[in-house]
Amino acid sequence: MPLYEMFCIAVHNQRSPTNLRQLVDTLTNTVHRSGGVVRKIQNLGLGLTLPERMRAHQQYHTHGDHFALHFDVSPLVLRTINETMRRDPMVIRWTILKKGEKVADLGILNETSIRSVPVPRDELVYQAPFRYRRS
Q1: What is the pLDDT of residues 39-62, one digit of tens each?
Q2: Which of 63, 80, 82, 101 could, after both became Cys, cross-link 12 (CB 3.0–4.6 A)?
Q3: 10: number of CA atoms within 13 Å, CB side?
């Protein structure tokens, strides 16, 4: 199965991050149910100011939560993930990049997946902020 990396900007909820957790859980469950493997989940920043006002689902957004998801999945399931992202009102923007055909192609050997190692939610959050650079 090919290895993919997805970057996503989700709607920022100031009161509670539960909607973001539900979005990530939905994506990871879709990958796991199809026989895929989630390699890494990265939080790239919560409540960051977007570089410009973005419109999604008939609403304008100025702040967003950024995260990255690395996963192995078949190309057919990738369509399901794209449909999920397109229909979810929590998603502002997303992009999926193909990293390689096999994990061995990337030089990553003996890497354990999140599915095989129980990790508390607090440790899944990466605290370094993601910043846009204007050219």
Answers
A1: 999 999 999 999 999 999 999 999
A2: 63
A3: 27
pTM attached to this predicted model: 0.73
Q: Name all domains of the chain by residue range, CATH numbers in brackets.
A: 3-102 (3.30.70.60)
Kindly state the tokens that stand for 72.
Answer: 């192995």
3 state SS for the chain: CCEEEEEEEEECCCCCCHHHHHHHHHHHHHHHHCCCEEEEEEEEEEEEEEEEEEEECCEEEEEEEEEEEEEECCHHHHHHHHHHHHHCCCEEEEEEEEEECCHHHHCCCCCCCCCCCCCCHHHHCCCCCCCCCCC
pLDDT given for residue 102 in this prediction: 72
